[in-house]
Amino acid sequence: MAWIYLLIAGIFEVVWATAMKLSNGFSILSYSILTIIGMVISFAGLILASKHLPLSLAYPVWTGIGAVGSIIVGVALFHDHLSPSTWLFVILLVIGLIGIKLTTNH
């Protein structure tokens, strides 16, 4: 269950980061509220996950999910352009996250 909490926390990290961008410097109330709600859910998921997973696993996976998810949202929603070499490192990050999950006994 801890890994599910961690996945949810990572997803909501992407939600709050995206909402923060859309809030235009917290000048749009609905996105500002969504940012705060996303932060609360994200941190709550991390707290629940870290009750059962070591910090050395929970925090890097949480930030990794947020990083990869934010990259995908940036490209899909905001038309960010990434070079092929940058995509290579994104793929390596995903491989690293999968490797962390596969090599842990938690």
Automatic annotation (TrEMBL):
It comes from the Bacteria. It is a multi-pass membrane protein. It is found in: Cell membrane. InterPro entries: EmrE-like, Small_drug/metabolite_transptr, Small_multidrug_res. Pfam families: Multi_Drug_Res (PF00893). Gene3D superfamilies: 1.10.3730.20. SUPFAM superfamilies: Multidrug resistance efflux transporter EmrE (SSF103481). The chain crosses the membrane at residues 27-49, 61-79, 85-104. Keywords: Cell membrane, Membrane, Transmembrane, Transmembrane helix, Transport. Belongs to the drug/metabolite transporter (DMT) superfamily. Small multidrug resistance (SMR) (TC 2.A.7.1) family. This is Small multidrug resistance protein. The lineage of its organism: Bacteria, Bacillati, Bacillota, Bacilli, Lactobacillales.
